[in-house]
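INFO batch 0412 | record 1 of 1 | parsing
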Amino acid sequence: MPGNPRVMCGLPRYSCANLAWFSRRLWYFLSVRRWDTFNDVYAAIARSVEPKVDVDAVTFARTRLGFEPDEKQAEVLASDAKRGILNCSRQWGKSTVTAAKAIHRAYTRPGALVLVASPSERQSAEFLRKASELVRRLGVKPRGDGDNAISLALPNGSRIVGLPGREATVRGFSAVSMILIDEASRVPDELYRALRPMLAVGDGDLWMMSTPCGQRGFFYQTWTGALGNGEEWMKVCVQATDCPRISASFLDRERGTMTAAEFAQEYMGEFHGDGTEYFDRQLIEEAIDLSIPELNIPGRR
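INFO prediction complete | emitting tokens
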């Protein structure tokens, strides 16, 4: 048989002694179950032989994916929070750590569906490329799910699907196990509102990660608690000065190429306006007292 039989079809590594058993299972699904496509047979057999993986996400990342997280990244991986928001410096590794989190979810929960949203289709594809590189380290050949152009299907029937940045074309998914929103500060509010109901049936998790981009949008409102549900979110902020992979000399050079507000947003996790406001948004919000009842002015509708 050409090639290495232990990695055939992208299945996990099994000994040659299991090949006869594998063949009997293939015959069973083809002749008894009479399913129409080999993809269905492939996924069903893989689910039946996939060893149970019961390992925490940090250990999984280190031992199976070859990814050594720093302290904050390990905190994100280990968290079982249903809602998480990462407000972190550029180049901290937001996409890499959440890609590892997505793969752990998909690999350890057969049939799980993970969705990845971002401002554009290209950015979603880049996230899936990183995820595919990590999946190869599991001994699994990356392949699509056959339905979505930007997708990654695992042998246990789980899928990771990348979405375009348009609200009109993302609807239709249900029972989603996890939604990741990359560069969330630049994702339209309409897309965010279209994604949230997909978590309802499966009671799935929602994580968003980004650098700030002005004092507006759902990412800013979630971080500041303006939506009134701040207590349900796990919040992680990492400044560039706290990232061991970013040197002080690099940051000194960057400070000389941009305004203080731009540097604060890109590298320090601070939200700033675009300079066109008469009053700072935080000042306005602090002046609002929602406990004061609305004035009832006669004749006003």
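INFO post-check: The CA atoms of residues 86 and 209 lie 4 Å apart.
INFO record closed
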